[in-house]
Amino acid sequence: MAKKAGPHDAGNGYQGSADYIVSDDLRNCVNIAIALQKPLLIKGEPGTGKTMLAQSIADSLEKQLIIWNIKSTTKAQEGLYVYDTVQRLYDSQFGEGDVANIKKYIKLGKMGEAFISPEPVVLLIDEIDKADLEFPNDLLWELDQMSFYIPETRETVAAIHRPIVVITSNAEKELPDAFLRRCIFHYIEFPDPEGMERIIAVHHPNLERKLLEQAMEAFYMLRNVPNIQKKPSTSELIDWLQALVVGGISPNRIKQELPFLGVLLKKNEDLDTLLNQLQGKAKGRNPNAVGNSSLSRYRY
Amino acid sequence: MFTKFFYTLKNFGVPVSMNEWQTLLEALEGGMAGSSLTGFYHLCRALLVKTEAHYDRFDMAFAAFFGDIETPEGLPDKIWEWLNKELPELEITEEMKRNHRQLDWDELKRMLEERLAEQSEEHHGGNRWIGTGGTSPFGHSGYHPGGIRIGGESRNLSAVKVAGMRRFQEFRTDETLGVRQFQIALRKLRQFTSRLEGAKTELDLDATVDKTCDNAGRLELVWERPRDNAIKVILLMDAGGSMVTYSRLCNQLFTAVHRANHFKDLQIFYFHNCIYDWLYHSHACEQSDYTDTEYILRTYSSDYRVIIVGDASMAPYELMRAGGIIDWGLHNDRPGIEWLRRLRQHFEYSAWLNPIPRDYWDWTDGAFTIRKIAEIFPMEPLTVDGLEKAVIALRSKQAVAGK
Question: What is the ipTM of this complex?
Answer without folding.
Answer: 0.70
